[in-house]
Automatic annotation (TrEMBL):
It comes from the Bacteria. One of its GO terms (molecular function) is sequence-specific DNA binding. GO terms for biological process: regulation of DNA-templated transcription; response to amino acid. Residues 6-67 form the HTH asnC-type domain. Keywords: DNA-binding, Transcription, Transcription regulation. GO terms for cellular component: cytosol. This is AsnC family transcriptional regulator. SMART domains: HTH_ASNC (SM00344).
């Protein structure tokens, strides 16, 4: 299933579950136009194939006290596989880093970071990020307003 295009009904299932992961099988079946047994089987296939990797609650970061959202572009001083792996492993352990990407262009990594406030971010940046292995340069961009926060992937584009 992951190497072939999904069927339109699978896309409907994925859209519905991304919007509300707590839908009952009956409600999901009604929404996508299937009876309950075929709907349940399709969801199981999507789970077993890894298309659906899990279910979780979507939180409002500001309501849980995380007022700062920042993107940090990082250059490392060496590009060997071992050193990039060491950096990646270090970043993966940081709770404040909610996403990390290896990127092309004038930086090597892009980190998405949350923090309660600017002072806490500044302390984290200077005492933690700056001390990560092989950091050559870092640049922070602060989010002023979330125009379109991540709500799920646009299924059916592929």
């Amino acid at each position: 299933m992951p190497n072939s295009p999904l069927e339109p009904v699978d896309n409907k299932i994925l859209d519905a579950l991304q919007a509300d992961g707590r839908l009952t099988n009956q409600a999901l079946a009604d929404e996508v136009g299937l009876s309950t047994s075929p709907c349940w089987r399709r969801v199981r296939q999507l789970e077993e194939s890894g298309v659906i990797g899990g279910y979780r609650a979507t939180l409002d970061r500001q309501k849980i006290g995380l007022g700062v959202l920042a993107f940090v572009r990082v250059k490392i001083d060496s590009h060997s596989e071992a050193e990039a792996e060491e950096f990646s492993n270090s970043v993966a352990r940081l709770r404040e880093v909610i996403a990390c990407y290896s990127i092309a262009g004038d930086a090597d990594f892009l980190l998405q970071v949350v923090s309660p406030d600017l002072d806490t971010y500044a302390d984290f940046a200077m005492t933690v990020i700056r001390r990560l292995p092989r950091i050559k340069e870092m640049q922070t961009t602060f989010v002023l307003k979330e125009i379109k926060p991540f709500k799920g992937f646009p299924v059916g584009l592929g």
